[in-house]
Structure formats: C-alpha cells, structure tokens
Specification:
This protein has helices at residues 11-22, 35-47, 58-64, 75-85, 89-99, 117-126, 131-140, 156-166, 170-175, 197-206, 208-220, 223-230, 234-242, 251-268, and strands spanning 113-115, 177-179, 184-185. It is mainly α. The chain has a domain at 11-70: Orthogonal Bundle (Muramoyl-pentapeptide Carboxypeptidase, domain 1). The chain has a three-stranded antiparallel beta sheet with strand order 1-2-3. Helix 4 packs across helix 5 (89-99) and helix 5 (89-99) crosses helix 14 (251-268). It is globular. The chain starts with 10 loop residues before the first helix and ends with a helix.
Length: 269
C-alpha cells in the first residue's frame, strides 16, 4: 500500500478515518489527513507500541485492523537504539527511512532476506571447502554458487534459494544472506557478538527490534562510521555504510533531508 500521511486527501483517507473512529479514536471523517487525523494515528501507534511517526503504512494499518504487531519495530526500540548510538531519535528515524527496507518480514512471517551466490562461494572457501569442490559446485549449481552476483528471485523465493543452499553447507548458506530491515549480512555474526550464524539468524527471525539491534552493533563495531553518524556527517556515514558508490544513489542527501524532516516533527510534537 502507498503511505498515507499529513496532507493526503481522498477516499483512502476517509476509510482510514472511519477505521480510526470505529477503533475509538476521536477523529472527523472528512477525507482530509490534517493535524487531528495525524494526532489520532500517532496515538494508535503509541497504543500498539509502534514507531509513532504519524504515517500510515502496512504496519499501522495492520494494527488498526487488529492484527498481531508485537514482532514489529516499536518506539521503544527506536529510543533504545538512539541511546546506544549516542544520537538523537531523529537520526535513527532518518537512517531507518533511507537505509532500511521499511519491512523486516514477509507477509508469511519469515524475515526478508536476499541470498548472495557470490558470497556463498567465498564463505564455502572460508569454511573449509577446497578449490576443486567449489568449482564443481559452481558448475552444478550456478544459481547458488557463483563468481558473479545475481540470480535473485526476490521476496519468498529467496528463502527457496537459501533452503537449497543449506543442503550444500548450512553455515555458509546462512552467512550468505542479508537479513531483515537493514539487510545485515549473515557473515557478520561474529562481529556483532553472536555465538554462531544460526544464533544470529534466530535473532533476526524473532522481531524487527533484533534487526535494529544488529544495525546498531554493526555501526558500533566501526568507530569511524559511528563518529560520522554522531556528527551527522551524512556523506561520511554513507560512504562507510553504502560504499564508495553512495553518491550515485544520493544516500547522503537523502539522509540529510530525512533528518531535517524528522527533527521538525519532533520539535512540533
């Protein structure tokens, strides 16, 4: 669904207001997403322990429809991350808006992943597979083990690829996926303080709060990245987090704009 937020008008806003009213929130049904509707949405988000940004997306709509949202990111998670990173809440919101997928779980409840076949090749070597054995696997299963990136199927189909890769080597396969909201690679499990790749995956499978925790740990493990974030040096942070091609996707500019937006919202609250 498209996000519904302050300034929106039309039948989708009217439907939202009707549902808010039916849930007991004091809001007029006029099809205009004004300050009163935004206040009602934020109250709903606080009541369900969601991130209270006043924006209606799939998570807020799920809460409004009475679905279980306990595995989703909460305002408490955001506040805890800000404290651990030594930044303000607007900074965490900005990074989440720009650097995360927005959804850490598929509709079927499994975490969002992306399986990387070229990483699988590297992890097999790291985990004791010989060169001849790896070359044979590349020939036999090019969609799972390959020098080249690619082969992506997206969404639930990535779990199908992962399950097949686990038959080759379980640990290497788990390490070869990016996991959750911030798509942290599984091979970072040791860097993040987990006992094993499986322990990392278990945490990513539980809730989005753990997925945010993995991001916090990833940033904390790189002093230069952490310092850049604390200084709001968006270019410095983006260069370390996204790599040298960050300018192509304007990550630094998008982070700065998102921060300004969320800071303004906090000041107006």
């Amino acid at each position: 669904m498209e996000l519904i937020k302050l300034g929106a008008e039309g039948p989708e806003v009217r439907t939202l207001q009707q549902r808010l009213q039916a849930a007991g929130y004091d809001v007029a049904v006029d099809g205009d997403f004004g300050p009163n509707t935004e206040a009602a949405v934020k109250q709903l988000q606080r009541d369900r322990n969601l991130v209270d940004d006043g924006i209606v997306g799939p998570k807020t709509m799920a809460a409004l429809l009475g679905r279980d949202t306990r595995h989703l990111l909460s305002q408490t998670d955001i506040e805890s991350a800000a404290e651990q990173l030594g930044v303000d809440i607007a900074t965490v919101h900005a990074v989440k808006a720009v650097e995360s997928l927005g959804e850490g779980f598929l509709d079927d409840g499994r975490p969002v992943i992306l399986y990387e076949r070229h990483i699988m090749r590297r992890r097999l070597a790291k985990n004791g597979f010989g060169g001849d054995e790896i070359r044979a696997l590349c020939t036999r299963y090019p969609g799972l083990v390959n020098k080249q990136t690619g082969g992506y199927r997206g969404y639930a189909a990535e779990h199908f690829r992962l399950n097949n890769a686990r038959k080759i080597d379980d640990t290497s396969a788990l390490e070869s996926c990016s996991w959750g909201l911030f798509q942290i690679m599984g091979y970072h499990w040791d860097r993040l303080g987990f006992e094993s790749a499986q322990a990392f995956v278990n945490a990513m499978t539980l809730n989005e709060g753990n997925q945010l925790y993995a991001f916090v740990g990833f940033v904390q493990s790189d002093p230069d990245m952490l310092a850049a974030l604390q200084a709001k040096d968006w270019a410095g942070f983006a260069r370390r987090y996204n790599g040298p091609g960050y300018r192509k996707n304007q990550y630094d500019t998008r982070l700065a704009r998102a921060y300004a937006r969320y800071q303004e919202q906090e000041q107006a609250a």
